[in-house]
Write a structure and sequence with these properties.
By secondary structure, the chain is α/β, with parallel strands linked by helices. The protein is built from eight helices and ten strands.
């Protein structure tokens, strides 16, 4: 067997085979590493750019769908088209710091409950929502938002970012969505003190939320040794149809995000 070959030693078919082999040869490892690094940078830019658009006021909301694709009304992205005639859309606002099983289980159960109310609709689409400005809370910073967004994009869940502080703002922004909330939030929503002490203004505001095709799905919570849910909330008859209860037989989680953060903090302190 000859140790070396020259082009003159090869027949024409053999030459083409050798040329094809050289063309498909695996690139050097260093080339692959560079490409992988570039891909990681590109993926990071896909997350960074729309968040920056929101924080700089170029748009009021940004959505990352279950495939990680960006939906926005500012280019180069496009907004999402809804089909409420055959789909139940749910919006779950929260801080999700961190996202935990209680959140994902409540979102699942909310979909099941709403399919009982609307059996004619074939599917449920739930979007988690993080507001960049929350009433009574410090505005979040960009790095914090990125970290929280990646909790969802890394596992194929939908998440929206918005600058909507109030539920009326969310209703205008996310029309035809059921708003998944806890019982404490439901109480605040119908408390006249947040409407200048006027029950009439409160009812007017809730009815306006309903005019955008929105309503509330309310989950309960542990309170001391008891369970507190929508059955203990007195809702005026004029707006009662806009509140759907999640029963404790469907959903009961006895831990909150605050408790999880406190446990993590205490574990970190004990290890230091």
């Amino acid at each position: 067997v000859p140790v070396s070959l020259s082009l003159s030693d090869l027949s024409l078919p053999s030459f083409y085979l050798l040329f094809f082999f050289l063309m498909i040869r695996r690139p050097p490892r260093s080339t692959l590493s560079s490409s992988s690094a570039a891909s990681d940078v590109y993926k990071r830019q896909i997350i960074d750019s729309p968040i920056n658009q929101l924080l700089t006021g170029k748009t009021s909301k940004v959505l990352f769908n279950s495939s990680g694709e960006v939906r926005s009304d500012v280019g180069p992205f496009t907004d999402e088209n809804l089909t409420p005639e055959d789909t139940i859309y749910l919006l779950y606002p929260g801080s999700f710091k961190p996202l935990h099983w209680g959140h994902t289980e409540l979102s699942r159960v909310a979909g099941v409950v709403m399919q009982r109310y609307m059996p004619e609709k074939g599917r449920v689409v739930l979007t988690y929502e993080i507001s960049t400005s929350c009433v009574g809370k410090k505005d979040v910073d960009e790095e914090d938002i990125k970290t929280r967004v990646e909790q969802f994009t890394s596992c194929g869940k939908r998440v929206a970012l918005s600058n909507a502080m109030l539920f009326i703002d969310k209703a205008k922004m996310f029309r035809h969505h059921g708003l998944v909330v806890g019982v404490d939030t439901a109480r605040r929503v119908i408390d006249p003190q947040y409407y200048g002490g006027s029950e009439a203004k409160m009812i007017e505001a809730i009815l306006e939320i309903g005019s955008y095709g929105c309503y509330f799905i309310v989950g309960g919570r542990k309170r001391g040794d008891d369970w507190d849910d929508l059955s203990s909330v007195v809702i005026p008859e004029a707006i009662n149809h806009l509140f759907k209860a999640i029963n404790p037989s469907d959903f009961r989680v006895d831990i909150s995000s605050t408790e999880i953060r406190e446990r993590r903090s205490s574990m970190g302190s004990s290890q230091s």
